[in-house]
Amino acid sequence: MNYPIWLALEDFVPVLFGMAGFALLALQAPEPARRAGLIGALLIGLGGLSKCAWKLAVAAGWGNPRLLEELLFPLMAAGAAAVCWALAVTLRPSPPVPWWPFAAVVVVAAFGSAVLLSLQPLFVAATFGVTAISVLAAILAGRRRRYLSVALFSAGLILVMSLVPLRSSESHHTVAYQWLEQSLNTCAQAFLFVAALLIPVREKVGVSHD
């Protein structure tokens, strides 16, 4: 489809909301999980920005750099795994939550994508990862008695899930549907950002996760 410039530019908004929200959640974790979570938030953001750059290039008539589009799910899967580990450590700082099961999910998904010559396994890993982030974040907010955050995380997750039937619609590639999808995604990521912002960061002593 032909993407309007404004549609392509708007796509940067949810990416920035999401990246900021994931970074705020990562700050809840002790070191070294905090650092890993921040790197994960950056990876998710870079994946989203890469997809946005592809969409902008197509909209502006600068060609079709498919590599930028295809970087989304590998970066998102890796980043989501890191943020999930950071949140898991936050929820259960002792005994330490090992990092390797989270990394293993990404490695298996990457191997599956390489064997199948398809991004589908990484898409599944990325989708599962960002969904798990919202669930873990809602649990954290509940423990901190930030019930508005719980509601916002839940609402954001519902909005994201509502995109699934839209993307399977025959009208998915129309400009009107693209605006609808992006608007819902923007609201979802804005909810996540505000929800994360409402959870105060508690300073923790760094712990080892060998």
Automatic annotation (TrEMBL):
On the tree of life, the source organism's domain of life is Bacteria
Any stretches that span the bilayer, and where are they? 12-29, 36-59, 71-91, 98-116, 122-140, 147-163, 183-201
Q: Which UniProt keywords apply?
A: Membrane, Transmembrane, Transmembrane helix
Name the chain's protein: Uncharacterized protein
